[in-house]
Model the fold of this input.
Amino acid sequence: MIVSELHRFIYIGIPKTGSISISHWLNMFYGGCSIGMHHDWRVPQDYLSYYRWTVVRNPYDRCFSLWWFECKNHNRRTKSPHFGMSFREHMLMNIRCRDHGDPLHDVPEARMTQTRYVEQSGAQGVFHLEFLDELQQLPFINKIHPIPHHNQPSSDRPQHFSECFGRDEEKLVWEYCAEDFKTFGYERKLR
Done:
């Protein structure tokens, strides 16, 4: 979570939505300061009057990115209890843990849907990672500073969900992210 006293905003970083890049950008150009845990949705009482906003991501890409990060990323091999899980196993775990947290993860909210993050945080503004130019709508944005871009996957990682998975895995994403598709206007179909 990033707060700016100068611009009176709180940025809620949802896992796997470009939150690290956006946090760096806010800290560098807009007086942002990290408070609490990076992916916390609980806004401290002192900042409830600030404008709260977040960024969401296409559910297919977010689920794929979370699976790759936790289960396939060799740099995390010794840190993640989920390393080596198949996409199916990972999604079934996400579905089970969605409302109750993941006892093996240090951020219990990591399994929350994006819709739940927005609801729980009281975010008033929601922007899409796929259209980061939307951030120019924020009143404090200075056109001199470039809008952040989301990181491109490493060359050893496929670029998109549809390069690795088909209809069966797609149905698991639908089940886990049903409210995200509806709430944020994403289409329930592969590219």
Observations:
- The radius of gyration is 17 Å.
- The chain has one domain: 2-184.
- The helical segments are 19-29, 59-72, 87-97, 114-121, 167-184.
- The chain has a mean pLDDT of 84.
